[in-house]
Amino acid sequence: MTIQFIHWNTADPKTKARILKRSGADIDRVMDQVKPILADVQNRGDQALIDYARQFDGCSLNALKVTPAEFDDARARLSPDLKKAIDHAARNVRAFHAEQMARVEREWWYEVEPGVFAGEKVTPIASVGLYVPGGKNQFPSAVYMLGIPAILAGVDPVIMLTPPRADGRVGEALLYAAEISGIRNIYKVGGAQAVAAAAYGTQTIPAVKKILGPGSPYVSAAKQLLSGIIDPGMPAGPSESITLCDETADPHNTILDLLTEAEHGSDSAGLLVTHDPKLATYVRDNIQTYIQALPQPQSGWLMHNMQHYGGIILTSNIQESIDFSNAYAPEHLLLKVKDPESILPHLRHTGEILIGEHTPFTLGNYATGVNHVLPTGGWAQTQSCTSVWDFLKRTSLSRCTREGFEALSQNVGLLTDDEGFPAHGNALRQRKRD
Length: 434
Prior knowledge:
alpha/beta; Rossmann fold; 2 domains; 4-stranded parallel β-sheet; globular
């Protein structure tokens, strides 16, 4: 195995463009496969979803909605230790997002000039579907990361969509995490068909206005195709991370950190960015031993993506490392430098920043309280981490007194004339003012 080792200041433009592009979920190649699925769900509703569960998930469903008995059974079957772990992580996530809500000003006004008031009010979005990958693997962390802020924001209804296992059930940990997050409406459907069900609605599943959560290229393609019908939320593609280090970073820990996000799949990316050649060389010479000690399929995925999408970026100095990180705009960024407070203000584009040897990606992914649903593929340059604001919306408010009306109406009337809107002007000049 040869891990990518790139001297950034001497790399050719083609190499730089390839690294910055990363793998990307190749949505275009699955578009033609997704379109008939969307149309089928729109036309046949529940029966289409049941047929796709048999085709894609290998299970026979009698009903799409999780029953109260299934919640009870999941709670009883889940080990006490795992319940305790989920409770602990969810408690921190709830505490952090509750603090976000406490900082939301539900309604405010500002007097922009005498008698002219402008403001905003904040209300929950109308409805939301939370997409949680499932099937063979279950991700209870994705449930509480999405469910807790949605419930705290006051969205109603909140539904959850997740693929069933081969036995036709939803994983116990998923159901337990949903229950403690406040989600009771869960439907056994995944893939592109889940996005279609959320957008169009079926006999069982209500249509919602927004869908959030990570998924496969098929899920991403469905979101893109249905974006005129449902708000597709933040782009969430293959996982990616930068571990940005100087000479003070621990080499052993740095290899562990580099492999964390990269183990999600063969299209994920884990990058060490450093100006310290000693650290870079150590990681290059020792990382294969760490990868080979992992089980399959993670070991195989890491071997692949460390040669194509991840690896080591050796820079000339800390400023070049910062510049690279801002250009890449990673989903996750771990900062391991001597003086992080001096670097932090200059890191402008990233989904999250974790600081120091004691804050590995793993803790942020599960239990520090921050949300792990983050923009990928460079979208951190314009998109934010998931928060209560993904489930809230702002409405503008205006109010004028008679004094304010008189102060504005003459100049606004001139603007309406210039733009060719006579009815606008009449609403000012012909208005009864008593």
